[in-house]
Amino acid sequence: MLDQGIGKRIKVARKLAGLTQEQLAQRNHYSVSTVRAVEQGREPTSMAFAAATASALGVPLEELTGQPYRNLLEEDGGLPGLAELRAIFAEGRYVVPIEPRPLTLLSDDVGQIRILRREDKARQALMRLPDVIRELHGAISIGDSTTAARAHGLLAHAYATATLTTYRFGYTSMAIHSVDRMEDHAARSDDSRLPIYSLIHRGHMLMASASYGLADDMVNRALVMLESEEVDEGTLSLRGAAHLRAAIVNARNWRPDTARDHIDSARVIGEQLGRTTYAYDTSMGPGNVMIHDIAVSLESGDPGRAARDGSKVVLPPDVQATRVGRHWMDIARAWSLEGKPDNALKALQNAKAVAPQQTKLHPNAQETLRAIAEAERRRSNSLANFATWMGMKI
To answer: C-alpha distances in angstroms, 341 versus 38, 334, 368?
Structure first.
């Protein structure tokens, strides 16, 4: 028997709201057949569908996704650092500082934490974040104006990592608090591009709540602001990241032509860079453009194209593990939607091979595996073993 998935939670929430499937389809702007297939577990639920449905039903997204997956997290050792990070958010503007080390060492630590997150070691990143954040607050409290401005910039980067990490583990409300902090410190830093970086993160949070119009406004505002910045690797990385974010926002908002325009713009920037850059932690480069190109097909309602093209694409070796893992999760969902469960399972296995921590805890992987199990008449050993590793019963 399958574990309860997003589809079943949507069905319960819809009935509690007193809506028919037809009425829900009118509100979340998907077809009735899609609503029916998702509720029955025949189609893997995309995060776009879940976000739109949560908004339509007036419930938190986590209520539908079942995140955070506390049992799985505890089985793997929990999330050291999460309680301390929550305490920092609760302290608001009165964060209790600790004696800071020199800013050069703190800068190195922030850089290392960002690398851990990119390399699918988000637990280790989260564990190290709270002390570094408190030290940076300490540097602000005892330093001169120049030191304080640099510390504000490092805090903006630290809170950006906290945003991405808490969001990945399913703590959406904490991620939103973290973006608020990021914006505040970015505005007080000595880096004029950090507020722009914050806008891109705000767009991500808005996209997760299906506020696509406002998310599009955020990334377009970022693009306008970047026009006045010196054109170097940092500016190019942010410009490319904004175009990629806008591409997904518009794909989810049923504007595929606009999404493709943004992909084309990002591709030009990727060619200018010629490699993956981690300036502003964007992972911008030709490989990330390829990944988003496939994702636009999937999000725009063309899973066949996404599955075929995505399975053939050869990503450059410098693409980060979590981006490659996310790519294979998208391909798995695309193959599942195309009625090819064997191909979908192989794609999930590829995601696991490159980014196991992310794959195990990502709703897309969980939902795709449920759809594979529904489609397979006989449970293969491969499917059973993968489900056991994911902590699911099928």
So the answer is: 16, 10, 9
